[in-house]
Amino acid sequence: MQFFLDSAHVEEIVYALDAFQIDGVTTNPRHIQASGKPFLTVIKEIAKLVEGTDKTVSVEVNPHFRTYEEMLPEAEKLAAISPNFVIKLQCIEPAFKTMDALARKGIRVNCTLVFSAMQALQAMRSGAYYVSPFIGWKETNGEEVSGFLSDMMTIRDNYGFQSQIIVAAVRNARQIVDAAVLGADIVTAGLAVYQDGFQHPYTQDGIQKFSQFWDQTPYE
Ligand code: E4P
Questions:
Q1: Of residues 55, 88, 97, 105, which has the active-site annotation?
Q2: CATH superfamily of 2-215
Q3: Where are the domains of the chain?
Q4: Residue 94: predicted pLDDT
Q5: Please, are residues 8 and 32 in contact by the beta-carbon 8 Å criterion?
Q6: Are strands 186-189 and 24-26 parallel, antiparallel or unpaired?
Q7: How confident is the model at residue 142 (pLDDT cuts 50, 70, 90)?
């Protein structure tokens, strides 16, 4: 399973690339705003961090753009900035024609804000490179997610679609592990979600206990 970092904080991305070898980055307008930098400035900085690798960076088209005529040129402009960029398009009907046109030009699309298997099916039919179901939002809304994710994967495999599924809006380690048990391709989460998941109170207890025994024992 690939781990992507859901962030536009350059320092966090640098840290996660080094500390636990993240496989890619996803950004969204909230992350870009939180970075405190202009959109183009920060996405170019992130592109530099993964230059020369096959790690992808998902960058989102202006969410006000809701027609094919608006989305297509903006997606092409962003894709020309870095070969690592995958262009995020919101899962709305005009985006399907846009992602189909982009796929034909070899530009990869991440279909974002996906909340139903039907949306995912059409995104896959339109050639989306990634499909991003937002499972945290669904759980907050009281909806189940494991059947949703496994339906998406079954549909993908039934028809041999090439799209990879990024389990997104992940809030805790249990969601990551559940997605891994289902066999999801990729998960994207914030730095704190990964770091919380890497630790366990018993690990800390054990370190303390074993350190005390170590200190009471001669080395030679
Ligand atoms: C995924 O690509 C999105 O950026 C992300 O997971 C959105 O979730 P959040 O902003 O609610 O964390």
A1: 88
A2: Aldolase class I (3.20.20.70)
A3: 2-215
A4: 98
A5: yes
A6: unpaired
A7: very high
